[in-house]
Records
---
Amino acid sequence: MATGELELKIVSLQEVVHHDFVDSVTLPTTAGEITVLPNHAPLISELKSGAIRARANGAAEKSFPINGGFLEVASDNRLTVLVS
């Protein structure tokens, strides 16, 4: 992992949906939309229906529709998203 990158893992009950290193991730939490950047404070939150949007290396944004779930931001630049 390069400095300034966030490891994103999106996991469903059946499979790992996406695993990559990204610059930012925007997620639809029940408290509102948030964007997670590298070195974000640790966080656990519930997600609502919507889309996870990830950006990496100036490339086009990737979007992943979800029906809800949970996210965990760890202090070592890891973001794990459990989706239904």
---
Amino acid sequence: MLPKRLHEPLNRHLRRVKVLHEEDIAEGFGTVHMPDALDRKYPNASSEWRWQCVFPSTRRSTAPRSGAVHRHHRSDSAVQRAVKTVADEIQLPTRATCHTLRHSFATHLIEDGYGIRTVQELLGHESVETTMRYVHLLTRGGRGVESPLESL
């Protein structure tokens, strides 16, 4: 789920990534590792724009098996570091991780009245019990209920 207000910033980002891809192509690189047998089925796909990473690494690296030089996706640890850096910059008093964002997303959906099955589907959980443990459902009692007249 991508909020509408992020459409334009994402499009700007993708335009910058496309320029980077075009520069890589001009320098004789610009391919990505293709999953499974797709490289045989679509031999030129690895250099096509549509197959490139949305969040590419800042540098190219050599694929261990093939020896090909690719620009892989941004590493999980780079994203984790970015979240930690922002949390430190804003002096967040609690520990924050990518997983914290996932919990917050789920919790806000529940608070906003979305059903547990919807949240389960969005999180990709097979079992609703996992989702219920995961979001730590809030029990606010009657204080958390808003009068239906508020929406009139």
---
Amino acid sequence: MLSLRAVSAELGVFRLRDVSLDVPRGDYCCVIGPTGAGKTVLLECVTGLHPVTSGAIRIAGEDVTSLPPERRPLGYVPQDYALFPHMNVFDNMAYGLVEHRVPRQEARRRVGAVAELLNIGHLLSRRPANLSGGEAQRTALGRALVLRRELLLMDEPFGALDQTTKRELVHYLKTIHRDLGLTVLHITHDFAEAYGLATMVGVLLDGRLCQVAPPQEVFARPATREVAEFLGIRNIWRLSELGERAEGFLAAARDGARHGRIEDDSLCLTPDAIAVLPLGADVDSQLAGEAILCEAHWQGAAWDLELDAGLAFHARLSSREFAALAARPGDAVLASASPHNVHWIAD
């Protein structure tokens, strides 16, 4: 459905560099990256709002690289929603239909159907100033959906919303994506949005697309150290470093999963891939050893543990698991991991 081939663009000193990406029909692709990585520039290249310096963009097989925005077969939800303050919800949603000369009766039917789908049918006479953030977001989404384009682009659509409203809208959007068979390119810096919505995730760092894969693979098996660090994974060690300082659990992880790795390779373990148990517990893993619990921090949905086995490492436990551990800072514990969860990165 959407194909980018070696797309490059410039914005001042910033460069989007040779981005290639394929989003098959019906897939939901989230592109994640930090502020300044080029996510919005990438989206604006696809919409036609920003020119490319090289490369090609195809939508449904058609080369749209040189087409103006109004001729590209897509719907677009900008970051600030861009609702017209002097128009009510109905007229905002119908704006694109009017521009495309859709008969008024058909436009009214389409707007009504999408408004009901988004649960804003009762708001059609309101102005944007009288909408909540979630209602404004649904209006902007509805304006894109009434055009009946198979490709939907969204630029951080939930960025200004509170967590409760965001969770509700993620549910709505997931349902709409499934029911309408949309192909979606969604730009965000929020990992939870990617977990909840994406069938594929792209990681954009400093203008480069560094990894594209299903979300489970991206978050558990980052392609590079740079990607792992962006994802917040702190358990990354070069093999040479492990050889000098690893003890207990980390020595077991190093020796049990090494298999011919060279000294410059790095071992990566996500925090939730590490089990932490009372010392002496039976574990069905060859990658197990002692560690010292240094700190435990409650994060609202889980406990983040700081541990030491010659080198510092981090684990994440559910409330039930932490209660069963019954350990305090300074206590020795047993840490273990499955060899399958050890991920090696060649630097």
---
Amino acid sequence: MRFNGTAVIWLEDDWFVATCVENNVASQGKTMDTAMENLKEALALYYEDNVVPQYGTRYIAPLELAI
């Protein structure tokens, strides 16, 4: 089975943080590629004992809010 999700990556101090929007699983790495690979590994472990959800079309849009 395959999981198709959405990852968000940002730079925090000297680390890239990658998180999966659908389930809040996160990981980090010194490079963006390493952060993504670590996130994939974390997701594989997460779904080892959980049901893999199937999502329809997702839309990603920037959001700006004055606070």
